[in-house]
Structure formats: structure tokens, C-alpha cells
Design goal:
2 copies of one chain form a homodimer. By secondary structure, the first copy, chain A, is an alpha/beta fold. The first copy, chain A, is built from 6 helices and 11 strands. Among the domains of chain A are: 61 residues, Nucleotidyltransferase, domain 5 (2-Layer Sandwich), CATH 3.30.420; 71 residues, ATPase, nucleotide binding domain (Nucleotidyltransferase, domain 5, 2-Layer Sandwich). In chain A, strands 6-9-8-7-10-11 form a 6-stranded mixed beta sheet, with helices on both faces.
Chain lengths: 206, 206
């Protein structure tokens, strides 16, 4: 069984615990020999068609069954949520989504811009704020210079809001900046296979 | 006595309790007849020169004497801080600066992007996130749709961090979005003359 999550920039594959990715702009790379069908979810229609032209594909999108009142939840967020019964899921990529699950029910969530987007935004406000973010700041200490003040302005608000949202619930981080953000929490987990776990759960229920 | 704060976009004037502004791109408008000198602070050199060509100007920049370890604090922030002995100053414009004063000492501060900058940033991340911000959201309830999820992602993190920073201290809001943000706090004050109060204090000490 090959699992594939298709995002805006990459195919993400998993096969027997191995994970790899391949850019969406060209033919996806299958690093394994297998005639297994590919179970996929996608937010990228042309990339999904390209995958279909190479392999038999089972689209899991129609089988997502998340208990939620949220309208317009992205497929990737919904599938990651299905992997967690109780907890907060933070997926930190070009956008940072934070979702809350309780007894298998999705209670809602919010979207923060990706950390690297902020640097651009500060630069566009004023040349004085055109500084590299300092990822070594601590959120317990008030900044004492401009570079730290903008870095704190990006990171501390997110950390405080995740904390406040979690109310003691387990927090699971995924995405490119997930490992970095997890460092601010004592009991945090990082799991880059969350979305595949959600897909496996859907397949089991099929 | 005329007070003038020169920012990136406007001259801000105060004379005997009246406040008005005038765009920096052209000759500043004096809405009163007065031969009084103008006490000014400026982050905008060409606009300061233009003011000097019309009136005698006393530049207060050299007389700012704020007790702080912060390196590179903007003149406008420093002067606003001088108006407050104890409290948190939130100046919400194209950038949102948050500064903490305690016993007349500046303890540090951070910089968050201006609220309207976020809308652009979300749009640049994905067309799905190209939505108008909903300023009517409540920060106590988890969002249930994309528009609320990005609005919450802008506002709740800032509110939580101001709260956490204040630790019960008085919070004073200024700037274009100051009135809006103050609504999230029970005991908040809005004071659009904060910087002029700081200037008056400097003048008194001269």
C-alpha cells in the first residue's frame, strides 16, 4: 500500500514506514517497486491527474468523515485531525493551522501565517523592520532590540495562543516548522506522519 | 505652543487640546494662527525640513531621556513611553508596538505587524485564504470557517500576548486600530494624545 498526500508544492509519499517527497511540477518519483494501488488525498488537481496517469489511484477525499461544524476545512487538515482522538494539531507550513479534537470531534481551529511569511511582511512595513527573524528568542523575556522585537512578535503570540487553546490537552506538531515550535512546549510531540495515520484510519474503515 | 509628531505618512499636530493631521507629501497645514515655535519629533527627515522651512522648530529628539536597555527604540515609541510611569503602551498602526513601563523604566517591548498587513499576507499564501478579516470575532470561541479562522489567527494571538505581557498592569491604546483592540480588554484606556503628553513632559523638563 502506497500513501500519497498531494500538496501545493510536493507529493508526499509513505510506503511501509518510509517517507519521501517529490515536487508536483513534474512526474512523481516512486522510490519503490510496487504494483500496489496508491491511496491519495490532494489539494492540487493537476498533480492528482499526473499521478493517475502513472498508477491506479484511490482518492480518499470522498471517504473523509470528520465530525465537525467547521465549513471549508481543508482536506489535509481534516485527515490529520482524524488521526487524533483528543488533542491539538499544529501543522506549521506556509500557513500554520491549529485544530482541536475532543472525543473524536473537531471543535474548530484557526490559521496563522507561516513563520517565514512574517519576515517579508515586516520588511514591507518599514526598512527599519527588515531584519532576519531570531529563532533563538525566549518567550519569557521582553525583547531589548528591533530584531528580537519582531521575532518575539511572530513567535510569542502563536505560542501563547496554542497554549491557551490546548488547556492541558496533548499537542502534536507537524509540518516544516513543527519541530521548531514543539521546543516551546514541555510535553509536545512531533509527528510528521500524522496525515498518513489519518489516511490509514480512513482506509481501515473502508 | 504647537506640538508636531512627524510620521511616515502624516504630520500630527496638537495645539491647546486640538488635534489635526496633514499629509507629509506636501506643505503642512497649520489650522491655527500662531507665532509660537513648533516642538517636533520626526522619523521623516524630508518632512522635518519642510516644516522647518515654514516655522521655527525645536527638535525634541535630542532631549528624549528614557531609562531603557532597548537598543534602537523608535523616537515615537520612546516619547509615548515617557508619558506613562507604569503600564503597557500599545500603538496600533501599520506596525503594532507593545511596550512595558514600570516605575518610569522601559522594560522592553515587541512589534507585531499591523492588522491590515495580515490580509495581504494570507492572500499571498493561498487564494483560499484571500478573505476579508472579520473584526467581529470573539477570541473565546474557536472559529468554524476559514474567514473566522484567519481573523482569529490575526487578533487572538495579539490579544493573548498583550494580556500576558500586562500581568494586570494598566493598558493604554493609541494609533488607528487602538480603539478596536481596546474593546477586548475590560479596563483598557484609549489615548490618541499619548505621544503629545510625552512631548509635553520633555518640554517641561527642558
Amino acid at each position: 500500500m502506497i500513501l500519497c498526500e498531494i500538496g501545493n508544492t510536493h507529493y508526499h509519499f509513505m510506503h511501509r514506514g518510509s517517507i519521501w517527497r517529490s515536487p508536483v511540477g513534474k512526474k512523481p518519483e516512486f522510490k519503490i517497486e510496487s504494483d500496489d494501488p496508491v491511496y491519495a488525498i490532494s489539494v492540487n488537481d493537476p498533480a492528482m491527474r499526473r499521478l493517475r496517469s502513472l498508477k491506479p489511484v484511490i482518492n480518499l477525499a470522498e471517504h473523509i468523515d470528520l465530525d465537525t461544524n467547521y465549513r471549508g476545512l481543508g482536506i489535509d487538515r481534516a485527515v490529520a485531525c482524524m488521526a487524533i482522538e483528543d488533542g491539538v494539531i499544529v501543522d506549521a507550513g506556509s500557513a500554520i493551522t491549529v485544530d482541536v479534537m475532543q472525543n473524536g470531534v473537531h471543535l474548530g481551529g484557526f490559521i496563522y501565517p507561516g513563520l517565514m511569511k512574517f519576515q517579508q511582511m515586516y520588511g514591507a512595513i518599514s526598512p527599519v523592520l527588515q531584519k532576519a527573524l531570531n529563532f533563538a528568542i525566549e518567550v519569557e523575556h521582553l525583547p531589548q532590540n528591533t530584531g528580537d522585537a519582531i521575532s518575539y512578535g511572530v513567535i510569542a503570540p502563536l505560542i501563547h495562543t496554542i497554549e491557551k487553546t490546548a488547556r492541558g490537552k496533548r499537542i502534536v506538531f507537524a509540518g516544516g516548522d513543527g519541530g521548531y515550535l514543539a521546543r516551546f512546549f514541555e510535553d509536545a510531540m512531533v509527528d510528521q506522519t500524522l496525515i498518513f495515520k489519518g489516511m490509514e484510519k480512513i482506509i481501515k474503515e473502508l
